[in-house]
Amino acid sequence: MRKIILNLAVSLDGFIEGLNGETDWCIMDDDMEFEDFLSDIDTILYGRVSYDAWGTFVPEQNADFAEQQLWNAIHSKNKIVFSSQLRPHSEKTAFIGSDIAQQMKLLKQQQGKNIWLYGGAGLIRTFINLNLIDVYRISVHPVVLGKGKPLFEDLNRRIPLQLLNTRVFRSGVVELEYSPKQKPS
Questions:
Q1: How far apart are CA 139 and CA 102, in angstroms?
Q2: N or C: which end of the chain has fewer CB within 10 A?
Q3: How far apart are CA 13 and CA 23, in angstroms?
Q4: Which CATH number describes the domain made up of 4-180?
Q5: Where are the alpha helices (H) located in the chain, listed in sequence order?
Q6: What is the pLDDT of residue 68?
């Protein structure tokens, strides 16, 4: 069955954005093999604000070839946007306004690759609270922001996790991969 993977960068102090929404502290090195992750997914899940900011983002014309290729790969995926402001579907983008748990159950049962839970914070919190995340892949970046938007906020329960893998990159980024710990039967 397909998995929903939260793959996200956080600062050492647990923020996904700075105080003014900035993400300029995120590091993308070639040894992170992000292209491999993208090749293992075929669907990206967005909240409306994140989709409006990044779902149709086009890099500047003078962006290097690698950045342009990255965005082409991202935009080749199917996108599902969760929003109360529904819009018409397009060939690659669907908008969903309700019944997230049932919609995700049906999506995971379909044929296809894994699913990337991109965000934003409100959507991530909803997925955590509905127990919809199969893999937490959190990349801790070597920066302390002090203030910003926290990754884990207003959760309705404790979530025990099991470590699956760790990777350390030359930039100092540490990727931690967890799955929710199964309760003993």
A1: 29
A2: C
A3: 14
A4: 3.40.430.10
A5: 34-39, 48-50, 65-75, 100-109, 121-129
A6: 86
pLDDT in tens, 37-72: 999 999 999 999 899 888 888 888 888 888 888 888
> Of 133, 105, 102, whose CA–CA distance to 117 is shortest?
133
Alpha carbon of 84 to those of 28, 38, 47, 87: distances in Å? Answer: 32, 28, 10, 9
Phi and psi for 126 in degrees, rounded to 5? Answer: -60, -45
Kindly provide the residue ranges of all beta strands, DSSP E only, lying in the chain, ordered along the sequence: 4-11, 15-18, 41-47, 78-82, 93-96, 114-119, 135-141, 148-150, 161-168, 174-180
In the three-class reduction of DSSP (H, G, I as helix; E, B as strand; rest coil), residue 81 is classed as strand
Q: How distant is the alpha carbon of residue 49 from its chain centre? A: 14
Peptide bond into 21 cis (omega under 30): no
CA neighbor of 55 nearest in space, from 133, 127, 120? 120
For 125, the 3-state DSSP assignment is helix
Closest by CA position to 141, among listed 165, 175, 117 = 175
Q: Tokens in use for 49?
A: 């604000």
- In the chain, the amino acid numbered 134 is D
The set of residues, in sequence order, having a beta carbon less than 8 Å from that of 154 and lying 6+ positions away, is 125
